[in-house]
Specification:
This protein has 150 residues and is of the alpha/beta class. The chain has helices at 28-39, 45-53, 64-69, 80-84, 90-93, 106-117, 128-134; strands spanning 42-43, 57-60, 76-77, 98-101, 122-125.
């Protein structure tokens, strides 16, 4: 049986076998997304807290003012803007379970993709810090007093 052939689109451009345009070889954004989709798993706030107690790193990817106002105790702060510029705290994450955290879950999903592109397997806190607080887990400020989620 001959191999399936790509079908032309109605505009005359070749389409991939699944009907999508072929991706350029160096399409990093697409590669990062595909890698994250294959490996991404969301973690509930309760499972994240248990994992943290067992040695996992909660990596808070929100910006400094947000992190300072309120965060889960014991989180490592590394803003998404830093990760996007290619910087990652590799030494602190090496060999440990990593769970990314943001306010509601969108930025932390992006952080999972960026970390995956650097060879770091990470998971995402489902619902972010808001879900963490709704589950009754503590949120503290820079002085370890009750914090606020911005």
């Amino acid at each position: 049986m001959p191999a399936p052939r790509p079908c032309p689109s109605r505009h005359g451009l070749p389409l991939g076998l699944a009907g999508a345009p072929p991706r350029p070889a160096g399409d990093t954004v697409s590669t990062v997304r595909r890698t994250a989709q294959r490996h991404q798993r969301r973690v509930s706030p309760t499972d994240a807290r248990s994992a943290q107690a067992a040695g996992a790193v909660l990596l808070d990817v929100r910006e400094h003012a947000e992190w300072k106002a309120g965060r889960a105790p014991g989180t490592l702060h590394w803003p998404l803007s830093r990760l996007a510029r290619g910087r990652a705290p590799l030494g602190e994450l090496s060999g440990r379970q990593v769970i990314t955290v943001c306010c509601a879950g969108k930025r932390s999903q992006h952080a999972v993709a960026l970390l995956a592109a650097r060879g770091i397997a990470a998971q995402d806190l489902d619902g972010g810090l808001r879900a963490w607080a709704r589950a009754g887990h503590p949120v503290v400020d820079g002085s370890d007093r009750p914090g606020t989620i911005l």
